[in-house]
Amino acid sequence: MGRPKTKKRVPHFPHGDEVDVIFRVFTKTGQVIAFFPEMIADSNPNNCLSYMHVGQHSAADYSALAHSTKENKWTPQTRMAKVEEYSSLKTELEGLGYVLAIRFKETRRHYQLRKGQVQSHLLLTGASTRASTRASEKECSNTV
Question: With b meaning 16 or more CB within 10 Å and e meaning fewer, what string describes 41-74?
Fold first, then answer.
């Protein structure tokens, strides 16, 4: 008898078991992306965790992909996904253990939550302390 299969680990959920998700479609390729606006992906609070069929979990900037900017010639790179477009990705995520709360846009609360998580992470790792120490050392050397 072999060992029982274990479920893949899912990232920590910010509140209880339910996690906010925003489904969008890339306008050029038609690929669906799931944004998790409450979850940090790296040390940049603009980036949230995302998921696609190909590539799986990754960091993504929702605002840069969802809104028109001068860099993307005033055309958004993604649009809101329809139910029939995101249903297979939703099923895949639920199979990984996610309990999804579907949202339609990122809110200021989502950004503030990520920003707080990044700051907490930096404090825990001491990164902000090292950076402020270097800055104060540089300031002292400039005054001498």
Answer: beeebbbbbbbbeeeebeebebeebbeeeeeeee
